């Protein structure tokens, strides 16, 4: 056992199970300290996630206390500054798990070098992914740009690999502190009241992630392919915020699903596959984090319209399914995937607003925000991504509503102004003429754009590129 202190840098890995860096630290050291670096400037644009992180730190502090490991939260505006100071101390070794974003992976290389120069033992482990992002390539060594062949190869590769063993975390002899000025998890709660309501729907912890997974496998996975598109039923796992923050490892999800021994799990695992594909994309084509994957969209004539953007953000577009989605997002920090596609399409195709505005808003409001899925999801919707929906396929928000929320259950939940509208009109309330029950201007809002006109305008804009 090493007499030095074992440090474990936590990022998106608030879990005990399959936390490879933490288990290695406890294997090698009698005394281990875990730390989380809080960059307040980053979370100004990720308020929802700031809430999740504070709650996760609260729970994980207790989990680690039971193992005699102190979790210290350090505020810093720059990782680089923090580590330049840290290497001046020499009484430690350090371990962390990868986060699959190009900046993080680049920083890992830099960090490893500066530790090695100072003879500080450091080791980086596999993060929350099935295959490392560089492992899945075409025969000619180039990255996949289309999902189906990517996933065919990735699934096979994963199955043939020896799975990562779940090493135990060993209880430390004694709990110690390492850093000065460590914060309390409450100190990093965002200073915004809108996030307070998340506690009604979410309880961030590893224990709850595992419970939710088991519940989903027991009750819903068999019907996942049929039910996943209907936002008024609980047809999906709602695991995304837990996965993002590493409360559950995707290998654990895989292992629990295959225990079911049912072919029907494959549709669900393919969605985990989309997450793998998106991580592969942003690492192989990092320019897409800031701009269009498909360069021809650089000339797209986006329109700047702050008023329309604000109606969209507030769920006041006059299209019930769009408004329901935007309000669900604001109230719960999450939105159903089908509705993410509908509201996204409405922003970029009906309002002709640049997908980056939508990406920014989701980044701030989603508890599950991650760069790979958000940027790729938005570019998929806008038509400028890899293997994306073609731009000319424009979702009709009325028909989408009628197809996926036939009886308006989802809409009535989030847009209560429409609760008395008969099903027939729930997705086109402007056609319901009964002054006593409902008046469009008084009780709701007229559509901010006309669907047919907006469609023609979008198609004309597309012709320009
Ligand atoms: C415009 C847009 C933005 C999006 N932004 C994000 C984001 O920031 N973070 C995020 O995790 N997902 C994002 N998605 C993908 C998807 O909507 C969510 O992953 C999904 O709704 C999460 O709900 P769930 O956990 O119940 O999913 P389930 O259907 O239960 O799927 C299980 C897991 O598979 C992964 N997954 C599912 N669908 C997708 C998908 N289409 N693409 C990639 N991975 C998927 C997620 O990790 C999810 O938790 C976005 C989609 C769109 C259209």
Give structural notes.
- It contains 20 helices and 5 strands.
- The protein has 465 residues and is of the alpha/beta class.
- It has 3 domains: 5-127, Rossmann fold; 128-165 and 204-284, Serine Threonine Protein Phosphatase 5, Tetratricopeptide repeat (Alpha Horseshoe), CATH 1.25.40.80; 295-463, DNA Cyclobutane Dipyrimidine Photolyase, subunit A, domain 3, CATH 1.10.579.
- The protein has a 5-stranded parallel sheet, sandwiched between helices.
- The longest helix is centred in the middle third of the chain and has 20 residues, at 265-284.
- It binds flavin-adenine dinucleotide.
- Flavin-adenine dinucleotide is lined by residues 228, 236-240, 243-244, 271-272, 274-275, 278, 337, 340-341, 344, 362, 366, 368-370, 373-374, 377-378, 381.
- Residues 228, 236-240, 243-244, 271-272, 274-275, 278, 337, 340-341, 344, 362, 366, 368-370, 373-374, 377-378, 381 line the site of flavin-adenine dinucleotide.
CATH class of the largest domain: Mainly Alpha
Euclidean distance between termini CA atoms: 63 Å
| CATH superfamily heading of the largest domain | DNA Cyclobutane Dipyrimidine Photolyase, subunit A, domain 3
- Count helical runs: 20
What ions, cofactors and ligands are bound? flavin-adenine dinucleotide
Summarize the structure.
The protein is an alpha/beta fold and 465 residues long.
Task: Name the descriptors.
465 residues, Rossmann fold, DNA Cyclobutane Dipyrimidine Photolyase, subunit A, domain 3, 5-stranded parallel sheet, 20 helices, binds flavin-adenine dinucleotide
């Amino acid at each position: 056992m090493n007499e030095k202190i074992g440090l474990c840098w936590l990022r998106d890995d608030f879990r005990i199970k399959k936390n490879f860096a933490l288990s290695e630290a406890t294997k090698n050291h009698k005394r281990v300290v875990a730390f989380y670096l809080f960059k307040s400037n980053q979370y100004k644009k990720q308020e929802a996630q700031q809430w999740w992180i504070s709650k996760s730190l609260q729970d994980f502090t207790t989990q680690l206390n039971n193992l005699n490991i102190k979790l210290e939260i350090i505020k810093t505006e720059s990782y680089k500054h923090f580590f330049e100071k840290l290497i001046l101390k020499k009484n430690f070794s350090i371990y962390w798990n990868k986060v699959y974003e190009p900046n993080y992976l680049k920083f890992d290389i830099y960090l490893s070098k500066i530790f090695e120069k100072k003879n500080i033992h450091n080791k980086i482990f596999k993060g929350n992914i099935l295959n490392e992002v560089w492992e899945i390539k075409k025969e000619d060594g180039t990255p996949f740009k289309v999902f189906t062949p990517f996933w065919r190869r990735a699934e096979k590769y994963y199955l043939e690999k020896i799975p990562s063993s779940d090493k135990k975390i060993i209880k430390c002899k004694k709990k110690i502190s390492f850093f000065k000025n460590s914060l309390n998890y409450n100190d990093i709660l965002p200073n915004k009241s809108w996030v307070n309501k998340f506690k009604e729907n979410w309880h961030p912890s590893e224990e709850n992630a595992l419970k939710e997974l088991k519940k989903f496998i027991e009750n819903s996975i068999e019907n996942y392919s049929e039910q996943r598109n209907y936002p008024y039923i609980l047809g999906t796992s709602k695991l995304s915020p837990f996965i993002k923050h590493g409360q559950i490892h995707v290998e654990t999800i895989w292992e629990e699903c295959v225990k079911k021994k049912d072919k029907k799990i494959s549709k669900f695992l393919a969605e985990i596959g989309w997450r793998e594909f998106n991580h592969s994309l942003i690492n192989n084509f990092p320019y897409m984090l800031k701009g269009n994957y498909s360069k021809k969209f650089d000339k797209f004539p986006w329109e700047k319209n702050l008023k329309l953007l604000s109606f969209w953000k507030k769920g006041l577009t006059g299209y019930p399914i769009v408004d329901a989605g935007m309000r669900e997002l604001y109230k719960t920090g999450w939105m159903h995937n089908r509705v993410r596609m509908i509201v996204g399409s409405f922003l970029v195709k009906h309002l002709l607003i640049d997908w980056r505005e939508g990406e920014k808003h989701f980044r701030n409001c989603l508890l599950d925000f991650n760069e790979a899925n958000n940027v790729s999801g938005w570019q998929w919707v806008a038509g400028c991504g890899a293997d994306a929906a073609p731009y000319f396929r424009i979702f009709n928000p009325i028909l989408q509503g009628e197809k996926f929320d036939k009886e308006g259950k989802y809409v009535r939940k989030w847009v209560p102004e429409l609760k008395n509208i008969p099903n027939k009109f729930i997705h086109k309330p402007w056609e319901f003429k009964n002054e006593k029950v409902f008046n469009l201007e008084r009780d709701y809002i007229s559509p901010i754009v006309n669907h047919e006109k907006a469609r023609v305008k979008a198609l004309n804009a597309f012709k320009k590129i």
